[in-house]
Amino acid sequence: MPESPTKFCRASSPKASEPPRPPPLPPPPPFRRLPTENEAGPAKATAALKQEAPFEPMYYFFYGTLMKPDILKAVLGPETTPLLRTAKVYGFELANWGQYRALIDSTPEAAVTGCAYMVQSAEEAYKLAYYETNAYALTICKIHFIHAEGQKEDEAVHGKTFKYAGDGQALKEGRFDRTLWELRMGHKLPRKWHKGEKQVKEEGGASG
């Protein structure tokens, strides 16, 4: 919690030989940060989430490691018995991010098949987001369920899925993803590093 302006110490009057000192900076605005897993654990972090908005159960679409019941159970906790339903989403495609699969935007007719799970609580939602890290962003999607027999599509519901948080086109083309790098590092990449040395020299003109 920032200090109140009234708590700043009053500086003594400057001597004649000293230049006047600038006034103290105003206190920073309050910053609310949810506790991390290591600081508070899912229970306290969930309490902070509940203060923001009441949680409503919703289907999440999984397409990678979370499709495996043993991994999903390890993420959510031993008391959980995951019930997964075969499903697909449209408008996305999969790309490789190292050893992991990443969901990126695609054409409207493109489809990705995976599994859907009903997230029951804010604590489960927090655990899933913590597992996925900030390399993935939670996004709204329409989940189409599929019957086991004949792979026929059943009803569709609105849900959520974890989409790649960086530049999907760069990932697909195997290029360096400046967007994701800046997101994970927390600061901008120096301009000369992503413009290219040749382009930087051309922008600098003939001087030097």
TrEMBL record:
Keywords assigned by UniProt, alphabetized? Transferase
Residue ranges of coiled coil? none
Comp. bias regions, Pro residues: 17-32
Asked if the keyword Disulfide bond belongs to this entry, the reply reads: no
Protein name in UniProt: Putative gamma-glutamylcyclotransferase
Q: Provide the taxonomic classification.
A: Eukaryota, Fungi, Dikarya, Ascomycota, Pezizomycotina
Q: Where is the Gamma-glutamylcyclotransferase AIG2-like domain?
A: 60-165
Molecular function (GO) terms for this protein are: transferase activity
Region of interest (Disordered), ranges:
1-45
- Stored Gene3D superfamilies: Gamma-glutamyl cyclotransferase-like
| Source organism of this protein record | Chaetomium strumarium
UniProt record similarity statement: Belongs to the gamma-glutamylcyclotransferase family.
Q: Which Pfam family, an example, fits this chain? A: GGACT
Transferase as a keyword? yes
Source organism, top-level taxon: Eukaryota
Record-linked CDD domains: GGCT_like (cd06661)
